Amino acid sequence: MLVINIPKNVYELEECLGYEKNNFEDEDDDNQSVNTMSSGENPKISKIYKKGKYSGDLVILYQGIEENCFSINLVIYGIKDEIINYNDWLECKKDEKNIEIVFNLSVY
Predict the structure, then answer these.
(1) Running DSSP on this structure, what letter comes out for residue 25?
(2) Would you kindly state where each structural domain of the chain is located, as residue ranges?
């Protein structure tokens, strides 16, 4: 799963974004309301909203974990630009000068 442009005031994202159909529908649940809308500039990117608050751009959907997975590795990048598009993200990965901070988290 790849999410870009997460605002500074967002500290939590829904698990498994895009894996289940209900992540793309506006639910009437106080804590789990996630709505995604396709971005006009790139139909492969969906804007994520939780309770009407913008939470980032979903670029790659969660695709599930294979059976017998015992750990998950997460990499969280801090990018100097406030908003980037997918091509900017690819450029950041090649030329790391726009990357400020990298967090590597492992969950067992």
Answers:
(1) S
(2) 2-60, 72-107
